[in-house]
Structure formats: C-alpha cells, structure tokens
Amino acid sequence: MHETQLRRWMRDVRNGHRRPHELLNELKRLPFENLDVARLDTHRRLRRGLPEVVFGDGKTPQHLIRIIRRMVQAKELVLVTRLDPHVFADIHHAMPQLRYEPMARLAYVPQVGRQTRRGLVVVATGGTSDMPIAEEASLTLELLGSRATRLYDVGVAGVHRLLSQWRVLQRARAIIVIAGMEGALASVVAGLVRCPVIAVPTSIGYGSSFHGLAALLTMLNSCVPGIGVVNIDNGFGAAYLAHVINQPSRRR
Known about the structure:
Helices cover 39% and strands 17% of the residues. By secondary structure, it is of the alpha/beta class. Strand 10, helix 10 (213-220) and strand 11 (227-229) form a beta-alpha-beta unit. Strands 8-7-9-10-11 form a five-stranded parallel sheet. The protein has eleven helices and eleven strands.
C-alpha cells in the first residue's frame, strides 16, 4: 500500500468518484492480508517506507506463487531472498515476469518505468569468494532505490587495493564491508571514512573461522567507532539498513 494511493482514494471519496463503503473495505485490508500460508503485511510501506520482502528459503513453490501473485496484484515491489534455483525453476512457469540472479539467489519482478537511484552506498568485499553475499546486498540496494558501487577483492592482504579507491569511499553515505576469514577489513575501512560502516561477516574461511564466527567476533570487537554488525552472510539485512541511512531525511 502506497501513501499516494491512499490519498488518491480519499480524494475520490471527497469528489464523489468512490463510495465511502468501498474505501472502508480497502482500509480493512490495510494491516495485513491473510493468505492462510502467509499474512502479507500490506501496511508495512505506510509504516516504514518500504514494502515487505519475502524470505524464500523453506517455502514451497506453491506458497511462493500465492504470495508473489498477490504482491504483484497489489502493485508492490516483489523481492524474494535466498531462493533456491530449483525452486525458482518450479515457479517461473507460473510467474514468467519473475527474474532470477543466481549468484545472489534473489528473485524479483522488474519495476515498470525508469527507477531513480539516489545517494551512494559502497559495497566492499575482502575477497572474490564473498561476492555472493555482496551481490545480495548490491542488488537489494538497487531494487530498493539506492545507488550501489561495488568494490570487490580489496581485502587487507593487499591494502593498497583499498586505498586506490579512496575518493569513492569518501563520497559514500554508507559503506557495507563484507569479509570472511578474520574479518579485519571492516575496521580498516571504518578508520578511513566518516560515514556509517555496516559489517557483514561471511562463512568463508578455513576450519578455525568456524563458518564466520571468527569474522563476526572480530567485527563486534572492533576498536573503531561507527561500525554496526549484522548476522553472518546477511547481505540483505546490511543493504536494508544502508538504504535507510542513504535516504534523504523527511519531515513528518
């Protein structure tokens, strides 16, 4: 539900183009819509400025088709995260407008018209192996409406690669730093810039990295202020937060 849509309905009632009971029926569905397998939070855009995003992992193709179809009917942004490629193949015949990005494991419905992307969020990775999480973050940013610049493979093993991108880092409104192994890159970046840094530990690494726990603890214990840390491999969560930071402030 868009605020502009609600205002248009109210104008229609005032001008006699819509009956009051029709508006009342629409308002009854605002908080959520019960599909039995899911309760779509149709009120979320009004509350938070962004619509609900679907977590694809664990949902059956039939469940996803019902959810996505209803979101398309409501003219909402459709974004499905952590979607298995085999599940996408099962639902694509019923939803041919759905696009899939295999590296990021993201599915989405392209938005009609040209979308303006605002601000700048830099997405930096320690290594090439972190790219699946980085692409989840970068594509999420772009679909939400933020401009994303990718700086991949700029880890601390060759810090000159990061320093060569100094000007790009200084222009960012927020920076997402994605790293596995020991996860030191977030502290290095945060020590160079004035904008918020969102650190994403990844599960990339050898045995004692404990599937990302070592990087998570490094990032949580950073001596550099101004770092926020999200869960292991959570590129989507980092992108959502960075997008909120990147938006121009609006008076209520």
